[in-house]
Amino acid sequence: MNSELPDGEITGSETPANGHTLGTNGHTNGHTNGTNGHTNGTNGHRVRVLAADPHPITLSGLQRILRSDPELELVGVCGTGKEALEALELCASLRPLVLITDVVLPDMSGVDLWRAIKRSAPDAEVLVLTAFDDNASILGAVGAGVSGYVLKDITPENLLRAIHAVRRGQTLVHPRIARRMADRLTRIASDGNGGLVVGETLTEREAEILTEVAKGLSNREIAQKLYISESTVKSRLKTIFSKLKVRARTQAAAYAIRRGYVR
């Protein structure tokens, strides 16, 4: 795993060029450059990039950044998962191909999109560019087989490095995420469970909620801390109690402490 990218920030927005005119919603609806899906350039070795993000300013900034690298060509920008899949069909003949996408799109989750891409274009590499750094999103991306996961505070230079890295077959994650994953793996190695779910049926989100229960937080406090609704906390707790075969918060808290979720 490679994670040598320092933190930074993507800034700036320009009027899209090279055939990427923004529509009324700020997206190209999956249109690609060239004729019949072929690139306009003469260098057949350039890496073709397809971007999917619900925010027009992000797509515009990506176009500016990608145009600065002569080895890359942005063949399409999309605002929804459906548009991305349609554009992917148009780009099916283009190799190599990297898809840059966010975790959340208006019409489908990133996980659903990534799995669909892997089925329809197994040779395409997926690089997640997002503001979401929660464990559920990260683990969902890993489970779906993405090649990289970077946050939107990355610098333009390091984003370009990330694109080339995943195209070379490397697996790359943002440094802050890599450090957190390393810390959690260290805890697993130190006591066998260490706060992560190992060999159990709890999801990562359920484990997070259980940890907060063991710390004595109320449902409302847990919801505020994890940025989820209180009703979601209640629903997840019912599932947690069922999986752990306990009936009360105190029993669940005792379980969490006993298994190393809380120190």
Report on the structure:
This protein is of the alpha/beta class and 263 residues long. The chain folds into 2 domains: 1-188, Rossmann fold (3-Layer(aba) Sandwich), CATH 3.40.50.2300; 192-258, Winged helix-like DNA-binding domain superfamily/Winged helix DNA-binding domain (Arc Repressor Mutant, subunit A, Orthogonal Bundle), CATH 1.10.10.10. The chain is 44% helix and 11% strand. It is built from 10 helices and 6 strands. It has helices at residues 56-67, 81-90, 110-120, 135-144, 156-167, 175-191, 204-214, 219-226, 230-244, 249-258; strands at residues 47-52, 72-78, 97-101, 125-130, 148-151, 172-173. Strands 2-1-3-4-5-6 form a 6-stranded parallel β-sheet, with helices on both faces. Helix 5 links the parallel strand 5 (148-151) and strand 6. Helix 2 runs parallel beside helix 3 and helix 3 packs parallel to helix 4. The chain is elongated. The two termini are 29 Å apart. Residues 1-43 and 188-199 have low confidence and may be disordered.
